[in-house]
Amino acid sequence: MMKQRIYAYGRKIGLDEASVVKTCGSYYRNYGLSVRGLVMHHQIDPVEFDEQVDGSLPLEDIIKPDVELRAMLKSIKTRRWAFTNAGNNHARRVLKCLGIADLFEGITYCDYSEPDFPCKPEREAYDRAMCEAGVDDAQLCYFADDSAKNVEAALNLGWTAVLVSPAIRTMGADKTHLQIQSIHQLPTVLPQLFN
Asked: Which of 28, 40, 120, 128 is the most buried (most CB within 10 A)?
């Protein structure tokens, strides 16, 4: 559903039907978010994009509370901080729909009102997350993400990172990473964080 809205927005700004999927996919792979490429190459307003794409999704009809996820997160013995490539409103809606918004001290999100906003896997996004969370030591950061690029960036900064993917993915030969198929399996790879 999200991809369809992104493609519709791409067509609205003049991308032709034959290239919209390829172009938006390329922007996602190259910049971490399709919206970043649309801003850089088509000078779109990312706030408008957020309203018309992310803001138009009927999340409350799609995402239901995840009781298992809530219990798992509550059993973490350290601070919890959300770090997302979504905009603020979308991120908060997703956390609320999942029933876990109250379990995080804060959230680092993409601020679409900021010119050239940083996003994962850019180092500036990780630095911002650490700053906003008040963490100086990268070794105290634990990170789970469904993007191998984002996990690799976290590993490069000294974070402990877990790839969440149903398919086994390899990263660089020198990268040692943890992988789980579902976020619910996090305690199996990071038992030291849980009660």
From this structure: 120
Distance CA 41, CA 43 (A): 6
CB burial of 92-103 (b: ≥16 within 10 Å; e: otherwise) equals: bbbbebbebeeb
Three-class secondary structure of residue 14 per DSSP: coil
What residues form DSSP beta bridges with 82? 107
| 25 sits in which H/E element | helix 17-31
Is residue 12 within 8 A of residue 44, CB to CB? The reply is: no
In the chain (195 residues long), the average pLDDT of successive 10-residue segments reads 92 92 93 92 94 93 97 97 96 98 98 92 97 98 95 96 86 70 97 94
Cβ-based neighbour number of residue 134 at 10 Å: 10
Task: Please compute Rg for the chain using Cα positions.
Answer: 17
| pTM, entire model | 0.90
